Amino acid sequence: MTEVNKAPHPGDGPPRVGGWTRFVTARPRLSLLVALVLTALAVLAGSGVADRLGSGGWEDPAAESTYATKALEREFPDSQPNLLLLVDSGRASVDDPAVAAQARDLTERLATEQGVTGVGSYWQSKSPALRAKDGHEALIAARITGDENAMGKTLDRIAPHYRGTHGPVQVKVGGIVAVRHEMQTIIKEDLTRAEMIALPITLVLLVMVFGSAIAALLPLGIGIVAILGTNAVLRGLTSFTDVSVFALNLTTALGLGLAIDYALFIVRRYREELSTGADPLTAVGTTLRTAGRTVLFSALTVAVSLAAMMVFPQYFLRSFAYAGIAVVLLAAAAALILLPAALLLLGHRVNALDLRRLFRRGREPKAAGTAWARAATLVMRRAPLFALGTTALLVLLGLPFLGVKFGTADDRQLPSGAESHVVQQHIRDGFPGTPGGGLEILAEGKATETQYADYKQRVAALPEVVRVDGPLVKGDTAYFTVQPKGEAVDGGAQSLVGDLRSLKAPFDTKVTGTAAVLVDSKHAIGERLPWAGAFIAIVTLLLVFLLTGSVLIPLQAVVLNALSLTAMFGAVVWVFQDGHLSGALGFTSPGSIETTLPVLMFCVAFGLSMDYGVFLLSRIKEEYERTGDHNEAVRHGLQRTGGLITAAAVILAVVMVAIGTSRVTNTKMLGLGIALAVLMDAMVVRSLLVPAIMRLTGRATWWAPASLRRFHQRFGLSEGEPAVQAEEEKEPAGV
User: Fold this and answer.
1) What are phi and psi of 47, to 5 degrees?
2) Band of the pLDDT at 234, cuts 50, 70, 90?
3) Strands 439-444 and 508-513, how do they pair?
4) What's the rounded Cα separation, in Å, for the pair 8 and 12?
5) Per-residue pLDDT reduced to its tens digit, 65-91
6) Sequence-separated (6 or more) residues with CB below 8 Å from residue 349
7) Chain-wide mean pLDDT for the chain?
8) I want to staple 398 with a disulfide (CB 3.0 to 4.6 A). Which of 102, 274, 570, 597 is the partner?
9) Spatial distance between the Cα atoms of 728 and 731, rounded to a whole number of angstroms
10) Quick one: CA torsion of 390, 392, 393, 398, rounded to 10 degrees?
11) Residues 697, 702, 707, CA angle at the centre, nearest 5°?
12) Radius of gyration of the chain (CA)
């Protein structure tokens, strides 16, 4: 971004503005008209986006379990049912002649449905795994073919004809395809409700922050543009890649939250410049040179954190990277292009309709800034106490995460009354074995019956195996079903996956099943996590160095940002894994955390923490360049941005809490967890820990070796002429 030249001294002629300001303010009415047209097009382009999003994406597409699953779907569709009809015979036995006749009729009808294959039932096979232990329920299993969208359409078409009462039996529809389809529908409904909750509350908060109704409407308008643009971006992404339906929630929240954050920062700085007597054009130029630059850097840091998810193979994570980066850039572009045009047209009318005048007389008091200045002074006066106390508190809040247990997403993500959840819970509680927990072994290559029998015997001898069924042979391919002890994805089941994969056989074997998918997912994440972390750390260090010219501040930023997330991770385990507050929050705890969720939450929350960190550091750096007084710069930076950062965090937290009202557990966890992280970062880390640490490091905070200082002078960004340039050439003797 081209910097705006400083306003000249009186008598030197009209103020000069730089290229970027000239670009965004040259035709403000035209800019807003174009934006209006593009927004209308975005509404059309983004319509129906939720119907094109997927509800899976947790598995590694290159994993052994994924290969085996696809091979079994192709060769043995009966082995991979994704549709289950739970047939309840009431007080009668499922073997009652009338019940059996009706169930066989339903089975035959289902087998004739287009897009359905591999239909089987208890009444055909008499398999004990398909009959409830009390004898009053049994299953009809089938497989719906096609991709997720095709499966959803098939389910919508056939489910109404099977759900409900049929003679002596009651039928409920379940299975993984029903779980995912119901999840997709609920998320779409919940997102609409979340927007209806968040928008009016956000408007009220913005009015409280600005006083002026006009000023309050500007950030909200930018946020709405970002939301509509988000939907269009997601719709476009679905044309060439898979995108998770969960991305719809988070990217909408980011689009609204970040757009409001950026607009809040720019509008506040513009009003501040007007209050010093600057004309609107000069105020816009100064705002873009200062707050605009900060917004640009903030957007880059958030985008970097989200981009780290592209190193993971699961499309659940990758979709957040694709969509999130687009949304961040869209929010920043709206704030840096449309907002300056609107501010220039409004001029001093940005302060119009000051609603707070209804409750007070005279000028607006400056008590808030004074309070933040006093708080900063207190924190720096007792810096060791605040630094140690705050760090200890954050570490303590994060301790529950040491007991994290990773699992897979299943029907318990849905509300307890959701039909597919009810079906799966009945199977989980009332049917023999561990439904959904079986492991399947794909055997490829020529083999004799004796070789198959010998292999089956050795599998059955493994300590974690309860029963082995099969093989079912088709040409040179066969498969075995293995029932493990215990729960579907507990430690024993995961250990059994390793034992099966290491067991030698005269043919190629590949293991799949719930536990195998979890093992492969954990391996894929663990293998790439260091690369993602290194990418975030290195790029963040570089960006913060370019912003500040300091070696120490980037290191502080990375460490303190990571520390600010401890409360979120501790709460996730304490609440969602261990089940505390499950009744109050209305969810069913599966006793584990889905493997990809902590990665997603870290990347998003870290980026948002850097968002607020950049806001604070840029103002401290600006003041330090102006005065050369380190302590005063920290105090002044917190005074100027403390209230703004807190207001932005509260507004973003409102949006995330609205998302957290979702009836889907993962979405609830995502929304409430990130809301907690944002509030902890703004109210604890930025308000207490950062000023305390910067007071302890003193002027050494700004040190950099001569070579890096020259690099920053050439490529970095600074404002004004440093008042202490000569002194900064010397390395500080101490803190």
Assistant:
1) -65, 140
2) confident
3) antiparallel
4) 6
5) 999 988 988 888 777 788 999 999 988
6) 214
7) 85
8) 570
9) 7
10) 130
11) 130
12) 30
